[in-house]
Amino acid sequence: MSDEVMQLSQLWTGSHYNEGIGRDDIFDKLREECGVFGAFNIPDASSLGYYGLHALQHRGEESSGMCTVDSRNGGSFNYYRGMGLVKEVFNQERLDGLPGDRVIGHVRYSTAGESKLGNAQPLIFKYRDGDLAVATNGNIVNAPSIREELEQQGSIFQTTSDTEVIAHLIARSSKDFVSAAKDALQRLIGGFAFLIMTNGKLLVASDAHGLRPLVMGKLGEGYVFASETCALETCGAVYERDVQPGELIILDSDGIRFDRFEKLERRATCAMEYIYFARPDSDINGINLHSARKRMGQKLALESFVDADVVTGVPDSSISAAIGYAEQTGIPYELGLIKNKYTGRTFIQPSQELREKGVKMKLSAVRKVVEGKRVVMIDDSIVRGTTSLRIVNLLREAGATEVHVRITSPPFMNPCYYGIDTPDRKELIASQKTVEEIRQAINADSITFLSHEGFIEAVGGNDGEFNRGMCMACFDNDYPTPVDPTSEKSCSC
Amino acid sequence: MSDEVMQLSQLWTGSHYNEGIGRDDIFDKLREECGVFGAFNIPDASSLGYYGLHALQHRGEESSGMCTVDSRNGGSFNYYRGMGLVKEVFNQERLDGLPGDRVIGHVRYSTAGESKLGNAQPLIFKYRDGDLAVATNGNIVNAPSIREELEQQGSIFQTTSDTEVIAHLIARSSKDFVSAAKDALQRLIGGFAFLIMTNGKLLVASDAHGLRPLVMGKLGEGYVFASETCALETCGAVYERDVQPGELIILDSDGIRFDRFEKLERRATCAMEYIYFARPDSDINGINLHSARKRMGQKLALESFVDADVVTGVPDSSISAAIGYAEQTGIPYELGLIKNKYTGRTFIQPSQELREKGVKMKLSAVRKVVEGKRVVMIDDSIVRGTTSLRIVNLLREAGATEVHVRITSPPFMNPCYYGIDTPDRKELIASQKTVEEIRQAINADSITFLSHEGFIEAVGGNDGEFNRGMCMACFDNDYPTPVDPTSEKSCSC
Amino acid sequence: MSDEVMQLSQLWTGSHYNEGIGRDDIFDKLREECGVFGAFNIPDASSLGYYGLHALQHRGEESSGMCTVDSRNGGSFNYYRGMGLVKEVFNQERLDGLPGDRVIGHVRYSTAGESKLGNAQPLIFKYRDGDLAVATNGNIVNAPSIREELEQQGSIFQTTSDTEVIAHLIARSSKDFVSAAKDALQRLIGGFAFLIMTNGKLLVASDAHGLRPLVMGKLGEGYVFASETCALETCGAVYERDVQPGELIILDSDGIRFDRFEKLERRATCAMEYIYFARPDSDINGINLHSARKRMGQKLALESFVDADVVTGVPDSSISAAIGYAEQTGIPYELGLIKNKYTGRTFIQPSQELREKGVKMKLSAVRKVVEGKRVVMIDDSIVRGTTSLRIVNLLREAGATEVHVRITSPPFMNPCYYGIDTPDRKELIASQKTVEEIRQAINADSITFLSHEGFIEAVGGNDGEFNRGMCMACFDNDYPTPVDPTSEKSCSC
Amino acid sequence: MSDEVMQLSQLWTGSHYNEGIGRDDIFDKLREECGVFGAFNIPDASSLGYYGLHALQHRGEESSGMCTVDSRNGGSFNYYRGMGLVKEVFNQERLDGLPGDRVIGHVRYSTAGESKLGNAQPLIFKYRDGDLAVATNGNIVNAPSIREELEQQGSIFQTTSDTEVIAHLIARSSKDFVSAAKDALQRLIGGFAFLIMTNGKLLVASDAHGLRPLVMGKLGEGYVFASETCALETCGAVYERDVQPGELIILDSDGIRFDRFEKLERRATCAMEYIYFARPDSDINGINLHSARKRMGQKLALESFVDADVVTGVPDSSISAAIGYAEQTGIPYELGLIKNKYTGRTFIQPSQELREKGVKMKLSAVRKVVEGKRVVMIDDSIVRGTTSLRIVNLLREAGATEVHVRITSPPFMNPCYYGIDTPDRKELIASQKTVEEIRQAINADSITFLSHEGFIEAVGGNDGEFNRGMCMACFDNDYPTPVDPTSEKSCSC
Predict the structure, then answer these.
(1) Peptide bond into D316 cis (omega under 30)
(2) From the CA of C107, how many Å to the nearest CA of chain D?
(3) Count: domains in chain B
(4) What are the binding positions for Mg(2+) in this chain (chains A, B, C, D) (predicted)?
(5) Which residues contact C492 (CB under 8 A, 6 or more apart)?
(6) CA 20 to 30 Å from B470, out of A190, B493, D226, D235?
(7) In this predicted model, what pLDDT tens digit does every residue of D73-106 receive, in sequence order?
């Protein structure tokens, strides 16, 4: 066992433990990096953006921002960005300050303090032809080298965000705006969904492999774009289709035009979107995620049945899969774990003394449900293993006689370079330990992971639709683009 | 059809509708009125209170308050109350301003604006023998007549809360404090859980029928009291027992003493606590509520099976029952409805124009799940029927071919006088319409309610514990105390 | 030299010192306790109250509150109170929540933290005949004994404020409201200005000696009452007259009626209102305070001329007097001391390290003005002497060669029992030391106080108006009522 | 009379008027555009910056910001900027987030809403050699043409602030940083004080004519730079000297070095700094401003004596001059006008209805002082004339029999291009009307302006110091640099 992992394990093996101190520690979960939303030719676009971003809030809780253009009023920019949830950053007065019929918006996780407000998106630039706003979800693998090249030529950057490079590439081009944008997009390697707005145009682009989700809907005479379909549904927009890999959509006073900056390749959508990130009521490439997750649970039941008294899921992300596991096995699904929905950023963490007394605040095991029972605990993934250990121990303390852990994805072994905030490889428990060692580390009676094939089948379901390619590099190390293992993996947004 | 109900129905029958404007309209749900929490002989009691009240937040989101006493420091009072969630009202600085080893706290719904902060509890009084703090959950049926009598004698009230009468009755008595409190409690008719604190003592009392839940736990050398067991669990306290009907527990420097102000009668716990109010991970009288609700769903399946493609529950309260229904019938449970967890008090309501465009913010139907399907929709109760109509229509708009409504309780026909905020009888759809008329009003293909017997069996389960009496007056008009139908029904807290 | 005073002196004698840590220490000044404002028969009375209270803000910066009644709408009460300045406590939304054509309002100093919001006025009570709101400025000397008597009879108090006794006395009376109020006012000993509002009436009363200022104005068809005339001026109201000692004014739907609860006695207005508390643009009993203070400076010049290069005043209260001194002597008035106007409650106090570096934030000496000069420094009073020492030292550090302190009032030797927050007698430097000892303690080259006669003449000026009686007990120990030296001196409001 | 001026006049001629609606209207005053503060080699530099900026708050109340570098820790940047006063933007937590021994800070007026936070300074850039922070006071006349040139070369701007051009000029230069900065400064035409910080260096520069004030002080082993000496005094720093025209001071780990980017020319300090902007306790080029303003009043008295009963000054800026006028003439100085110190950004403006009732909130005339009196009203300048008319009318309504206006500067006839926010020439009353017409427009009995010679003598005083050159272009149209009358005049900061 490596020292690091050992330390982490020891952290949670004592008789007293709790839910961590900082926010990041509370759930040892992967974090989505961003969500984007855009609307074109919609009256009061910022109000629509408010509800659309709100539906994407789970993709980023740290900062929110919107930029609007009123096409009937010269196309001047209005924007506001702030730290916090959409509902905290925007009030009616601020929405009133964002008139217009076009909007791009963004929700984001940040990794640092308030001085990083500067990194909140949409980023706003002023260049030769006017104003430029950019909102991204994802990561540009070769941004550092492009950035260095631009700086050598005298470019000034306002943020640490790699997103900024696309604005510089466009500003330095002598071609017209759309051609400049296509050139710029072609240079970028990685996984990204881009919304780019100028005084006159809105551009929508997905990377060459369609790594990050991006969908298009129709609302009245206008168009809506979002990271997930749940935002379309919230807005009352009708889903049209997923934006295609390498596609560039151009909207302006002449209407909508579909173009591409790369020839169409097989899609490689991020597998973790199916497993964990996207909302269960969203569809990706036509697949509803609650249903897909339920099928993962069913598949897992077929692959690794265990005789037990109750099935429970780790809330909120694994409930669907747990129900699927229960349906398939006939073991009753029960509410063995519960999450308190009122916690949030401003919540006061319990002191060490209180934690030692047993004060819990986010997740509790339900004694009446698990006491004296053999429990199947369904979770979607194991990153470092610390949270799993903690939850297994919560169940044991509440009286579970056996805890069988079932994971609805293959072992997570490789870092992501496309916009998911993953720890270093050496902190990924599955890259450091055998399955039996993991079982010991998390104090489980048994543990199994869903197989690659089972996972793929569960996603595809009994559904014949094509275009179901996935990036599963985190499981199989097969990255769809060149990556630079020495560079920072954090997202561009 | 009465005019009122017709109007309400028409409100939601149009082709466009949405989630209401004011908070009260958003979910036409009954509202619990309060939660109470107390701790005795616990170092840093206010921090424990913070986590305990937080676990009871679902019982009252509008105001929060705590009062502490430091028994080693003369017993002087410290308190703070404010509008908002526990995490909004209290920060570390405010907790630091509440030193002590004893605490009583309260979360509350209010029906009006900020000037009603005065009604936030614990209420604090200064009387002959020092300070007095009172926190209540419930309603005192005869408070208005006692209040009038006191006012005629020259008493001044600081609030509109009926809770205040107990303080006046105690202050005007010439007996010692405990005797005075017993006399006062004896005079009160209704359903209530009381925590009363003076500079030297903490009193804990449950009404003569045990209408409102109240439990006792042990934590180290101290005691914890709360409206629900989930607060004990959150605090790391060990559940001891439910406070008995008519019981008065006295804690002071001499320790704990169990007394009563009424002789023990059969318990009549509020049925709606089992059905809807209490958290699913709480136990009442030894019954876990998730399990009870699942059994309600199972019983409902046995009583009124319908052939369908999917079962879905109205979040959050009916998920357990829906899973029970699905398990019993073999029809798969699916996520047909989803609630957005980020909305809250400060959320901007969509304008009429946006609502007509279809903007939703709290509840959405999941198209991929329900499209072309026959749906069983499980809900816990129907009050006015407006929300049910709305949800049925949401499902139909998302493509459900049939919607069969199954309610996990008998028809709700009579107002509550014991602390639940219910509309007037004429607004209760089940007291105005036949089941068939209700079906039409909510646009369902079929509707059934759980029978009285089925409900009682589901609560009792296969569990032999005694003391399972319930108040089911809202279903059967059999009130355990005299009530005054002309008086205001709202709670004392 | 007493130990206490010695300690205080030593505090400021070192080579480094600064402006204190807590707010109270920053300026060792007496503090006015409250301001009251009322309006009757004025549309949108709360907006008028906002501007009126704002004009009285100098009389209390810690909490603000208003209560309104809409006489055309049944007389129901609306109120809001909060910690902070008027502009912080009230926004448009909160004013909108206070409809009505009658208002009473209050600004207040508090001596403790936020849990004392309960003491913010107007206090609101519910009694037999409806609602009762009370706002006071001043102190009731015999409130503790009345309170004890009431508690023995079973009364409950909601605050620690002595103001509350008047409400209980009224509630317990069997007479009609006005008679009950007169009886209650007769029982009270002390100095106070009362505004009392019920659903139907507004009462305005001044104590038997007129110790605390209270004026009446006319605005359109309505009436305005305030602690100072500056509030009338701000409201556009026309000054009518000062409320008389022992007067009770009754306003209701029958109009205005002038009554009394005590026979008219010689007025004994608080001398410190003339010297320091009231705004310079206010008039008391027809005397403008800027002019009175300028005359105090002139009189002081005649009584104790000293040859010097510049005259400077301690801002803000002593500027008028300093100009008077300069005019009389011909020595130029200069800006030798300056106060930073942006400091306030939220300001971060400099750390010890920064203070040792010389960081100042409230008061600075202006080097260019005082360097190499003999300075006359005018101040209004000396309480403990600590601030005087600090300012003298500031001037010396900035290069003043001589500092001659001139005080525009007699030595302050006795505590106030009528609503001014004064320290204990043993902390009053003038009651512990001779004038020469004071000079040494504050490091001045000379010091003189204005004589009693000079002070009286300066206030009366060359003006023949009668009714100029003053309470000068703080200078001469001649209290106009019995006082209880053992009781707490702090105000009732 | 031009139409515009006529309209403006009519605005205030009616029998009712008040203090305007928006902030800008409240006092028709010129507005300083910014203040800058820097410290080098000072432990806990951000705390010092807090007090320093606070002392400069009068130069900009809309936004505040600081950027720090810890030279012992690699020179990484920390910064925070926000809308509001220094005390509102920074709290202890935010200061703690700004560690370091070097700081540059900025206070600023903005002309627009919150979306302009992006323009708050210090501006932060990332370029080839690391980080760059810039804080400016003043205006660059030729920034638009440089900006256009840079944009044509593909530069992206993050703000509308012209300040940004200097960063681009530096980033695009192939020379070393200091040489690049000197080249850049040489290209800029205008009036400006610059603080420029990189990870390794701090640069301090004043424009070629020293138009905007900038001073240097010493504090322990470190240096302090500020727009005014009052900030040095607040910090406990010892004034060293004013930064010279065309000077460039370089501070880094090698210490301090004095260089220049232009050869030394005669200074042309902005005259309005002497008259109005700078704090009265500040010195510019060795002249104390209170004293200078008093001499302006004395000079005005000699030039245009008028027989009257009282002299009063428009607060706060004209008090010093009014005292000077009074001293010279022997007419007593009185407090005829008073400003309420508690108003501020969040203050609710009185409704039209209340204003018609006479509600005032910022400025009142003191009836007792001016009633029946002939008043000399001293003000520092007249811009549009609207405020003067309003104040004259306030005095007349309070009973003044005559109002003689005396202005302590020559007529303000020409817009400023160097950082003062002035209206267009056609709105400047003195450029549109004769003195007699102005007298009529403001409803005065007489009006005089201080002569050019009188003004110059008053500033120079009886003081022999050289280096007293002033820019008086606003009076005499003699601009020290080329200006572009067609360009926007607003400041770069």
Answers:
(1) yes
(2) 13
(3) 2
(4) 317, 379-380
(5) C136, C138, C139, C140, C143, C161, C162, C163, C190, C192, C419
(6) B493
(7) 889 999 999 888 898 899 998 999 999 999 999 9
Range of the domain at C331: 3-29+274-476
Distances (CA, A) of A137 to A14, A227, A493, B437, D83: 40, 8, 6, 50, 29
**Tell me, what CATH number does D198's domain have?**
3.60.20.10
Paired sense of beta strands D102-108 and D123-127, if any: unpaired
Residues C164, C243 within the same domain: yes
Task: Write out the two tokens for A349.
Answer: 């963490």
Q: pLDDT tens-digit profile of D278-301?
A: 999 999 999 999 999 999 999 999
Digit-coded pLDDT (tens) for B421-446: 888 898 899 999 999 999 999 999 99
Pairwise pLDDT comparison (B245 vs D460), residue with the higher score:
B245
Distance from CA of C475 to the nearest CA of B (A): 37
**A441 and A376, same domain (yes or no):** yes
Looking up residue D414, the CATH number of its domain turns out to be 3.40.50.2020
Report how far apart, in Å, the C-alpha atoms of B101 and of each of A47, A385, A404, B98, B258 are: 48, 37, 41, 10, 21
Give the closest residue to A119 by CA, choosing from A75, A158, A90: A158
Residue where a domain terminates, one of B204, B232, B265: B265
- For D374, counting Cβ atoms within 10 Å of its Cβ (0-12 exposed, 13-18 middle, 19+ buried), the class is middle
pLDDT at D334 over 50: yes
Question: Would you say residue D287 lies in a domain?
Answer: yes
Q: Which two tokens stand for residue D482?
A: 């080329």
Q: Which one, of C14, A47, C15, D413, lies nearest residue B356 by Cα?
A: A47
**D281 and D176 within one domain:** no
Query: Mind listing the pLDDT tens digit for each residue in B436-476?
Result: 999 999 999 999 999 999 999 999 854 444 456 899 999 99
* Cβ contact D–C (≥3 pairs, < 8 Å): yes
- The pLDDT of residue C487 is 62
Both tokens of B18, joined, read 């949405």
Residue B29 banded pLDDT, cuts 50, 70, 90: low
pLDDT tens digits for B332-389? Answer: 999 999 987 666 656 677 787 777 777 776 788 999 999 999 999 999 999 999 889 9
On whether any CB of chain B is under 8 Å from the CB of A156, the answer is no
Q: What was the pLDDT predicted at C116?
A: 58
Residues B77 and B134 in one domain: yes
Helix (H, G, I), strand (E, B) or coil at A205: strand
CB count in 10 Å sphere of residue B172: 18
Q: Is B210 left (phi over 0), alpha (psi -120 to 50) or beta?
A: left
Whether D470 and D351 map to the same domain: the answer is: yes
Q: Is there a domain that residue D352 lies in?
A: yes
| Interatomic CA distance for residues D147 and D142, integer angstroms | 9
Check CB contact under 8 Å for B86 and A342.
yes
Cα distance from C324 to chain D (closest Cα, Å)? Answer: 9
Name the range with the highest mean pLDDT among A212-221, C81-90, D114-123.
A212-221
In this structure, are C235 and C360 located in the same domain?
Answer: no
Q: Does D353 touch chain C (CB under 8 A)?
A: yes
Is C255 found in the same domain as C310? no
pLDDT tens per residue across span C389-435: 999 999 999 999 999 999 999 999 999 999 888 888 988 999 999 99
D128 and A114 in contact by Cβ < 8 A?
Answer: no
Closest CA to C362 of C335, C344, C389: C344
Cβ pair B291:A361 closer than 8 A: no
Query: Is residue D80 domain-resident?
Result: yes
Residue D246, in any domain of the structure = yes
B307 annotated as ligand-binding: no
Q: Is position C235 annotated as part of the catalytic site?
A: no
Given C97, C125, C132, which is nearest B113 (Cβ)? C97
- Given C230, C265, C300, which residue is the final one in a domain? C265
Residue A424 is predicted with a pLDDT of 84
